[in-house]
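Example A, followed by Example B.
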Amino acid sequence: MGLVRLVLSLILGPPAFLLAAVCAAAAITAQDGRTDPMWDVLAHFAPVWFAGSAVALLLALVAFRGLGRWPTVALGAIGVVAAGALMAPEFTRSTGPRIGPEAAGQLKIVQFNVWDRNTDPEATVEWIAAQHPDIAILEETTPAFRRLVEARTGWRSLCHDCEVMIYSRLPERLAPLPPSRRPKPGPLAHAEFQDARGPFTVIGVHETWPTEPRTQQAQEARLAGVIADFPRARTIVTGDFNSTPWSFSRRRWDKAFGLIRRDRALFSWPAGKTVWGVKPPFPILPIDHVYAGSDWATVSIRRGPKLGSDHYPVVAILAPVGPR
């Protein structure tokens, strides 16, 4: 057994040390994302740094022998703590009021980046229709996909050909957006609906990657302005934010929106897509989010199945908190 551990130390020791060093350095440097959005890109990958550090740490403790393993142990422990510190607030924050499945006035929402290169649009549309959602917010739609949805379901939208589409079985009307002197930075759709408690606003968004921080922050600021123009208590916002909950940017905008993000570490990307030459067997980033105002309670929120998109869908069921 001692010989085996010695051989493992010689063969796996250098790559394990390198893995621990890279992950620890990335997790520590990500802290600079508090002030610089470019460094905040590293924070989005906190689970990767955590997993890499943990693997290196366990290898060094279990499989290696000799004094040479201790630098790897130290770096692995540092990486686990640094990455864990980035992720911890997501697991301790409030996701808002919850209510049981028997609640009255439930609203079922399907949010899905269907991908403009969807590999199985027919099956995707069939799944969406089979959920019988009250509202479906779809991003990266193409003209062909939109016509397929409308032919299968009979749904219509106030916007005939937007990249972000809001389809619904409920009566809807266009709610005016706040004035802006600049062009709208990125796809955004909105509609106003009516239920037994009165009107409520639904906003769908699709933001760019955090590797384009100036554009993404302009999109977030535009969205915050739109949210502020409507009664927050009954507003619902959902979409592909291309932003994870352990980033400092996401935390700042969570506060600025004045809404409650109802998902918690709901990993939604990638779904069966090859990323940087690797095809992850499970999603590694939670970048699709659901926000709702204080008048809404969460009945459930879950990830849907793998379909023809590079994202997983999100299914959220909300209900009024209680009678006014």
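Example B, a separate protein, is given below in the same form.
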Amino acid sequence: MTESATISSTQRRQAIDKVTWIGVLVNILQTLSKLIGGVMTQSQALVADGIHSLSDLITDGMVLFASKHAHAEADEEHPYGHGRYETLATVALGILLMIVATGIAIDAFDRLLSDQPIAIPGPVAIAIAVFSILSNEAMFRYALNTARRVKSSMLEANAWHSRSDALSSIVVLIGLAGTMIGLPLLDAIAAILVALMIAHMGWKVSHSSVQELVDSALDSDTVESIRQHIDSLDDVKHLHMLRTRKMGDQALVDVHIQVSSKLSVSEGHRISEAVEHTLRDNFDEINDVTVHVDAEDDEETDHTEPMPILRNELIPLLKQQWRDIPQTHQISNITLHYIDGRIEVDLFLPLSVIKSLDEAKELQNAIRHASEQVHNVRRVKVYFH
């Protein structure tokens, strides 16, 4: 178990909010310095980077909103919880990034095609770009470490957003330096490169979260590890129809396990609990496990054939067949096994109804022959106790 397994929902939200509020303060400083400095030095790349930082403030607000709602307790309308708020916020964050990138790129291309002279930025613009690089890189490392500790894909996406800010500021710095040494078009080219980087990050963030919204499975390595942990339980004969999906920082698992057809309902349920506890104990992200207990591999069952009748219809039919066998009036219990579309019957009679072994065999044969006249009954065993 990792450290994240001991973090409560409240602690997780507090950690996300703390990182995000620090990011808000950093982005306010960056936005003001870049926009003011960009206008003063007439650096298009610095203004573009300032708009990028302004978009960060919006995404920080989205993160705070999603963090509040995603950690709300499950209710009647949301029985699986509210984790998808976090996923939706991540998708919106990615889309916003791509919109911002498009605007920056269009403006930069207009600048490249314009005949107006491009101003030469001064040392102030260089200092602002350096400040942006250092603060964004520090913010990236802090946010990424927290995101991985609390397993928040939304916070990790926001952390990589900070890393993209740092990289874009490096590009801006190169553009500024190029403009100062006599290559004025580098400023607009740098703005276009910044836009491409922002768009790439937006696509990457939104695409992964959209996959979560359409219930894509966990990665293949994790699914295989889940399979191995279930297979390791002695009472599980086989597993099939293993399905997984994500919901925010959590994962949901649905699996069918095959157990012996001779087990009681309570023992089958106990084995399903063992499967659930095994997965919860070994995978921090798994918080919901649904286990279907099967007596056979229902993936291979022919579902086009009509289902055998249930107990309330079957028992009267059997008793009708047993009407001429007086010993069956003392039946103490009937256990039914539904296997391969057929019914197997275990019949329990008191030992007092027979006087000899030969009489027991005759009675068994009579009951068996009468029972197998009922459709779908393929085997009958009689037990004396």
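On Example B: The longest strand covers residues 238-247.
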